[in-house]
Design a protein that fits this description.
274 residues; alpha+beta; elongated; 8 helices; 4-stranded antiparallel beta sheet; Fusion Protein Consisting Of Minor Coat Protein, Glycine Rich Linker, Tola, And A His Tag, Chain: A, Domain 2
């Protein structure tokens, strides 16, 4: 019997290996190029994101302009500080001079009356014990007189404001209010001189009232300006705030920190302050 050899087909793997190697070698440059392009795109995107974040972080926030506003009102004088001026210089009446009784003759005693001289004893015949009693009375009077005078001054201050006793207190209060009013008026004159109606708002017919709170330190420099009442337009609010903060030279010193409330009205191309 003739033996037959069975032939099996050659595996496909052995034929495709050289082809795969050839394809891999031909695709390597394009894959490298695609990888480089992909990484460059990633770098550009990362750089763009970093720049956007930095711009958002370092850019001034426009929200602060919405808070900036002010009205011109001098700071109030606390009522608790007013009595301090009265207590510094209390009114004291001069102590009366005590003289002997014999040295003060009355006018009607100019003509001697023999009957009265007989009824009334002379100063030389008075008892010696009267001298210590007069000294005791004078000492008590000197002690109580300043206290009584101070009480009378406090009680009569409310009813007699036009009397000479209240003049030092009124003068002290008026002298204290003068620096505040001077600083407030100087700032108002400066603000009305540097305010300009925005041309864009004038073309669009935008008007409104801006309430500003301007803070001045005791040296007369503008520390801050806050918008307390917005006009509804960022352009008008920003113009009022910029004018309030543009003061480079200090104003007359108010001697205390001062808050000025200013109402800036933009209407029909005109600007008014209240």
């Amino acid at each position: 019997m003739e033996r037959r050899w069975m032939t099996f087909p050659r595996p496909l793997f052995f034929d495709t290996v050289p082809l795969m190697r050839l394809k891999a070698r031909s695709l390597w440059p394009s894959a490298t190029l695609l990888s480089i392009l992909f990484h460059l795109c990633l770098l550009f995107v990362a750089d763009w994101l970093i720049r956007e974040r930095r711009a958002e972080y370092y850019s001034p926030a426009p929200r602060q302009t919405e808070r900036l506003v002010a009205r011109l009102v001098p700071s109030r004088v606390e009522p608790s500080q007013a009595p301090a001026y009265r207590a510094e210089t209390p009114f004291r009446a001069p102590a009366p001079e005590h003289k002997p009784v014999a040295a003060q003759p009355n006018s009607h005693d100019a003509v001697p009356n023999p009957i009265q001289n007989q009824l009334e004893p002379s100063a030389s015949t008075l008892p010696v014990a009267a001298a210590p009693a007069a000294a005791t009375v004078s000492a008590i009077a000197e002690t109580l007189l300043p206290l009584v005078s101070a009480e009378l001054l406090t009680a009569s201050e409310g009813a007699n404001r036009g009397s000479p006793l209240s003049e030092p207190t009124v003068a002290a209060q008026s002298s204290r209010l003068d620096p505040l009013m001077t600083s407030a008026l100087a700032f108002k004159d400066y603000l009305i001189g540097c305010l300009i109606y925005p041309s864009a708002a004038l073309r669009r017919g935008i008007s409104g009232s801006v309430g500003l709170a301007v803070f001045m330190d005791k040296n007369g420099s503008i520390a801050a300006a806050i918008v307390r009442q917005s006009s509804g337009s960022r352009l008008l609010d920003g113009t009022a705030v910029a004018a309030a903060l543009s003061a480079s030279q200090p104003f007359p010193a108010p001697e205390h920190d001062l808050e000025l409330i200013v109402q800036v009205v933009f209407a029909a191309g005109t600007i008014k302050l209240f």
